[in-house]
Design goal:
Blueprint (H helix, E strand, L loop, with lengths): L34 H25 L17 E14 H4 L13 H11 L1 E9 L8 E6 L12 E6 L9 E6 L2 H19 L1 H26 L4 H21 L3 H27 L8 H9 L5 H34 L5 H30 L1 H9 L4 H6 L1 H33 L9 H5 L13
Antiparallel strand pairs: 1-2, 1-4, 2-3, 4-5
Helix pairs in contact: 1-6, 1-7, 4-5, 5-6, 6-7, 6-9, 7-9, 7-13, 9-10, 9-13, 10-13
Length: 450
């Protein structure tokens, strides 16, 4: 007769073993912390938030300053239009261009002139569908090798030049993409809400707030002559506070992520200011920045470049700091006996995975944006040194490397802050020890070996 086996004694929660990947966003509700710790965090965050509000009030622009349109580039009057008819005609009948006198068709201009003489062009009749001249029609001739061809019923954007002869006042500048862009935005919003539910709704609200700060504060303030760096820091801080607290709640865990993001932003600002000045980057490198400088010569274009670096790094910084803070919090819940050094070592192992993926993402994002430019250098068979030394590419290199340094630094900074804060918590004043010691729910458990 065998004696009944007694139940095994319950085992204490074990700290996580092995290498854990930290790029997860299924953060559960944060465990409550003591009243003492909440007061300490509030003493840091509240003055910072107050300073941001004061900065918003002090630099609030009150609207975009008026100016006379130049009719160049984006600074043109535009209206909606619609292509009502397209007919094919001989290019020689509608173009005045001639083949170069030498007959040299080996050059791009020569080949283009030949196409204009011998090809079949499209003669489109376009009707203006908005503005004071609604219903007015004009003719647009499209070359056979033009990158954008017109078709009947297509919506277009037309530019208006009031000083030009009447027959030349309107011209097609772009295609109207409002319907597909709106549909894509709606699909995005539905996907976020379907997966994220309430968190998804709050993320969309935070996104709307971010765009509001950008369009109502940052851009008009820079146009009115305020220092772009100061405006970018204030605006980015406002976006950070709104986005983090709306998406993740007003908790100690979120506050630690806010402080970590702020420190990283300051580092990015200092490094960006140093290397943009040292490399003599003017920020005026293409037609768009040249037009801005021509319209508003008082704008500091190098400061505008630095502001772009700060704002561009903010979104990825939020992701890194929130993930690292949440990882440390979960590690502490899994093993409340772990000290801050142990929490830091475990959290930084998670952070190394995050660094590798985020830095690669950031570099590829900038490289993708500059791909046409890099292709031109490749066609010209320029050396790597020549390409990197050109201001157009040097701007992207500085933007990428400064932002990446800030991202890398945010991992240890946020991890050590979270480890110090959560290990310094004193259960009892605002939370029970049982709550503090409760292990976090884990996923699928592993079968123990006999």
């Amino acid at each position: 007769m065998t004696s009944p086996q007694s139940d095994p004694a319950p085992q204490p929660p074990q700290p996580p073993q092995g290498h854990v990947h930290g790029h997860t966003h299924s953060h559960g509700p944060a465990a409550p912390v003591s009243k003492h710790l909440r007061k300490v965090i509030a003493a840091v965050v509240i003055p910072f938030a107050t300073a941001v509000v004061v900065g918003l009030i002090a630099f609030w622009p009150g609207g975009v300053p008026d100016h006379e349109r130049t009719g160049v580039g984006f600074d043109r009057q535009t209206q909606d239009g619609k292509v009502v008819q397209v007919v094919k005609v001989d290019c020689a009948d509608v173009n005045a261009a001639q083949v170069p006198p030498t007959g040299d068709t080996s050059t791009p201009s020569g080949r283009e002139a030949v196409n204009e003489q011998e090809g079949e062009c499209a003669k489109a009749t376009v009707e203006v569908t908005s503005g004071d001249d609604k219903g007015r029609k004009f003719v647009e001739v499209v070359q056979p090798d033009a990158p954008r061809q017109l078709r009947k019923g297509q919506g277009v954007v037309v530019a208006y030049a009031p000083d030009a002869p009447r027959d030349l006042q309107y011209s097609v500048t772009d295609v109207n993409r409002k319907i597909p862009m709106t549909l894509l935005a709606a699909i995005f919003a539905l996907a976020v809400i379907a997966v994220g539910r309430l968190r998804g709704v709050m993320a969309l609200v935070a996104l709307a707030v971010s765009f509001a700060v950008l369009t109502l504060f940052i851009l008009p303030a820079i146009l009115q002559g305020s220092n772009p760096l100061v405006v970018a820091v204030i605006g980015a801080s406002a976006i950070m506070l709104a986005a983090l607290y709306m998406c993740h709640g007003v908790t100690a865990r979120t506050s630690v992520a806010v402080v970590g993001t702020l420190i990283s932003l300051l580092l990015i600002g200092l490094l960006g200011s140093l290397f943009i000045g040292w490399a003599d980057l003017s920020g005026n490198t293409d037609d768009n920045t040249g037009l801005i400088h021509g319209l508003y010569p008082d704008i500091d274009m190098s400061g505008l470049l630095l502001a772009g670096v700060i704002i561009g790094s903010l979104g990825v910084l939020d992701d890194v700091t929130v993930t690292q803070t949440s990882a440390v919090w979960e590690l502490h819940q899994a093993d409340p006996r772990m000290g801050w050094r142990g929490l830091y070592r475990a959290g930084i192992r998670i952070g190394r995975d995050h660094i590798a993926s985020v830095v690669n993402t950031l570099v590829l994002a900038y490289a993708g944006a500059a791909l046409p430019l890099l292709l031109l250098f490749s066609i010209a068979q320029s050396s790597v040194g020549t390409v990197a030394n050109s201001e157009l590419v040097a701007e992207e290199i500085v933007r990428t490397l400064v932002g990446s340094i800030g991202l890398v630094a945010s991992v240890p900074v946020t991890t050590v802050l979270a480890a110090l804060v959560v290990s310094a918590d004193r259960p009892g004043a605002g939370t029970s020890s049982s709550t503090a010691a409760a292990p976090a729910r884990t996923g699928r458990g592993r079968r123990r070996k006999a």
